[in-house]
Amino acid sequence: MRVTVLGCGTSTGVPLIHCSCKVCRSRNPKNKRLRASIWIQVDAISLLVDVSPDFRQQALRARIPSIHAILLTHPHADHIGGIDEIRSYNFIQNSTIPAYVHDWTLRELPVRFPYIFSPGKVEGGGIAKIDLRPFGLRDPDFRVGDLKIIPIELDHGSKKVAGFRIGNFAYLTDCSSIPESSLERLRGLSVLMLDCLRLTDHDTHLSLERSLNYSNRIGAKRTFFTHLGHDFDFVAASRALPEKHALAYDGQVIHVSK
Ligand SMILES: [Zn+2]
Ligand SMILES: [Zn+2]
Ligand SMILES: [Zn+2]
Fold it and tell me: What is the pTM of this model?
């Protein structure tokens, strides 16, 4: 399995517009963070997790040739804002693309994008063609082709959102706590990607301290922090992390043994 970090930034991206802090002014490319999304290649299947507002740029940079399915964690704008760009893959593949969603995302998408999900007569260049396929956050699993995907229920403030486990890899962005029942689904991981917004506590995200507490409980062989804000200078913050932990960076490719 090959996981490409398309973006590891928080909802504003890094640098923030008009911020003059050291990280936002940094020239290190590892301090430039597009909005959070990953691309997973496994058994000839190409999966996109979330469609960020930066998706066009991310798809060009990673040279994503095709998308068999999209997994959506939740309907916040930084995770679905690039959905119009899926059109390009409809054209390339000459097909509708399935998107797997839990109940919150299933409710929100038609409200946010009525022209995609309840279109009238379409003229001109067309619209994204996406087939919504619901799953339950507590379902044991669902399948994309033969590939088993285990939903991981997460608390994101007062909302329930999805993480995903595929084989020994799990992606848990946007969470403020992880229910016990979900921690049980995360045993024996090789690689964990976990929310880590900033240094201080936040209502809807994990701080570094809380992320480290969870990552130590989960005990993956390697943990990468994502959804990072401008608190983290890549070099300085990486140096301070305990072993088996690292900050993700845009463009990073992580190989996961099955
Ligand atoms: Zn987010
Ligand atoms: Zn800044
Ligand atoms: Zn969110």
Answer: 0.97
